[in-house]
Amino acid sequence: MLSRYPVVKLGILILSLLCLLCAFFSSITFGQYMISFKQAGMAFISFDPQSIDHVIIRTTRLSRAVVACLVGAALAVSGVLMQALTRNPLASPSIFGVNAGAVFTIVLFSTFFSVTSLNTFLWLAFIGASVAGALVYGLGSIGKDGLSPVRIVLSGAAISALFMAFTQGVLVIGQEGLDSVLFWVAGSVSGRDLALVVPLVPLFILGIVFAMVAAPHINILLSGDDVAKGLGQNTVVIKVVLSLLIIGLAGGSVALGGNIGFIGLMVPHMVRSVVGYDHKWLIPLSALWGATLLLLADLVSRFLIMPEEVPIGVTTAVLGAPFFLYLARKGGERG
After folding, report:
1. What fold is seen in the domain 67-185+195-334?
2. Which residues contact 207 (CB under 8 A, 6 or more apart)?
3. CA–CA separation, 307 and 17 (whole Å)
4. Domain residue limits, the chain
5. Where do transmembrane segments lie in this chain (predicted)?
6. 277-319 pLDDT, tens per residue?
7. Cα separation, 299 vs 22, whole angstroms
């Protein structure tokens, strides 16, 4: 495998960053109203408030692209961490109920308590993701055999279904607030105020950086708890830190983009097939690939039924469902 060499991995990292930049500029130029790359560049270098192109980029498309980058990167990294923590290749925030729990708390409080603050949504999403994650982990651990990959997948499916049913019940009861929260259920990266999004950027970056710092410990943890303890690792602390990172990144992504599934499942496997299992490379590359994939999914959503748009959560589900079935089939054949 050529990519086992650090120089090759560095080249892949640089190429991935260039692809992300291309996808980012495509996101702010392509759509129902097409804008040239030249005008896109001028919107940042020399902003003209009289130019329709500049106003569209600065007021709508820039925030949309930034949100897609943050959500895609956060979901991908949380998927990597969750798969490492549970040693389950099917693990992801959407499948394990973390997203569903975060969506439920946001819909509940926005419908009955008229909460509209994005910062408040972040905390609500964190609480909902924490409760869902704890329930899945608790249910998956019941029994004499303890936690197992199959049991935790079944627990995640059950908790996801439970919270989605609760969410639908809340929406039926509070129909007058349906339009304001519907995009959290379907998933969307549009309609965010850039002034509210920008202060959150450092928090997402900090979470990803912490995950990268923890990469060497994750590599050791994958050898097994006994081996990790023998090498001086405090496995309990590492697992708690990883759980907090998963909940923070997944909950924050729901607060910004709603229920966008399968990014956390697909991206880690795609990156792993290229650079292997070393999390020092796997985590940063997953962040770049996750951001790029969600930007491209957003572009596809704009053009499928133009002039209307398909919710981005639907687009990622169409891409991710066959991938999930492939992984499940592959795992069944190995079993």
Report:
1. ABC transporter involved in vitamin B12 uptake, BtuC (1.10.3470)
2. 74, 77, 245, 248, 249, 252
3. 31
4. 67-185+195-334
5. 62-82, 94-115, 121-140, 152-174, 194-215, 236-261, 281-300, 312-329
6. 899 999 999 999 999 999 999 999 988 887 888 888 888 888 8
7. 12
